[in-house]
Amino acid sequence: MKFTLSRRQLLVGFGGVASWLMAQPIAQAAKTAVKKVFVSTQAPKGYDPFKHKWLMCIDADRCIGCGACVEACKTENHVPSESMYFRTWIERYIIKKPAAGSGDARGEVLVDSPNGGRGGFPPSMVPRTDILKAFFVPKLCNLCEKSPCTQACPVGATFDSPDGAVLVDPNYCIGCGFCIQACPYGCRFLNPETHTADKCSLCYHRITRELKPACVEVCPGQARIFGDLKNPVENDPLQAFIRKNKVQALKPNLGTDPRVLYANIDKEVR
User: Fold this and answer.
1) Does some domain include residue 98?
2) Strand pairing report for 158-160 and 109-112
3) Is residue 111 part of a domain?
């Protein structure tokens, strides 16, 4: 099919490109200013982010899918009550037995997360006799060291803290949604109340005051292991967990280097 452009269309197109190019230095200057001067966090006065390095590990074998973490996160961080907004959520994976005579080792994989796992999960519609394996996987911001979201933010409102947290300054977020589109893990959303980007912050207001994230605090199975790599405690559960388990990041092929690591998950988890 042959396309033709009028002189007017060409001029409009060139004008749009020119406007974009002219805006880049301004946007970059704003981004630099925010990063160096204006960025604010919920950390207390005197907290030094350069003296900490936060990390979370998740043991899928210990998650019972109760949804207590989701509820705690909603309450602690004032996440909108609607079912589509979550800073953390739980997914249920059901791997069915392969069809007889197929030669396959595993069958169909079903993934669901009704209401983000909040309040637990209803019984599966798949008969027990057809299930090869079933497990729960908590999800949250992956705290990428090479975070696509920070690269996509035009004004620097999304930024990497030296302590490993990836944060959003709502005072400077313009709600453009670029970071939401850039996140390969689906961990961000546009808050309908603040009209700014929202995500897990590791309960930054808590961890900078020597408290655990709300999701870690309430987990009855201790499926979430949280700690500070720069300040290990005696018999540090985080260090012990990493030594005893084969931990891995989600979607390692993306090269984002997440600081949320998983143990005991199958290859179907993405």
Assistant:
1) no
2) unpaired
3) no
